[in-house]
Amino acid sequence: MEKRKVHMHIEGVPNPLARKFVLENGILVDQPYEFTSLSEASNSPLAKRLLMIRYVERVMLNRNYVTVVKTEKGPAWEEVLFDLKVQIQQHLEEDMPILYYGADAVNHQNSDEIVIEIITKLLDSKIRPAAQEDGGDIVFDSYKGGVLNLRMHGACYLCPYATQTIQKGVEPVIKSLVPEVKQVVARENRVG
Question: In the sheet where 18-23 sits, what is the strand order?
């Protein structure tokens, strides 16, 4: 049997602590999954493999890419990029599982309320594709009293440009199309 050949390239993203490893010939998962600890990664052998590396802080799997966020005090990217790429490629070329059935996806809360439905459609069509392009994701958390709470994942998590992205990019777009929204806030991600 011929070994699967994985073609992959690495992209820089606005967050200096994150890199996006893009699979050029295949799909990894059908929706985003983010892991911040070994216990969370118990349903993802690929994420677990990466989180076992001492400087890896977070792993997000999305359609055709893996975003790795390293610790601030970890080694420079130039020192570890090749090794991370090899780890991901080996895992995929050996046809090891990426995700076990029953893993929980990044929580996208939905509601029957019309405002929330409009917000989530807007996020999916205008906001999330741009964040995913940079190796992250911006997902709906909650909406109440005119305040929209979002969560940053992957490369967007702790990105030095996150506040600017929300205030100058996301908030004006959402407020102009959904007048019920008075404020957009990036909430701290829940861990565990």
Answer: 8-12, 18-23, 65-70, 56-62, 33-35
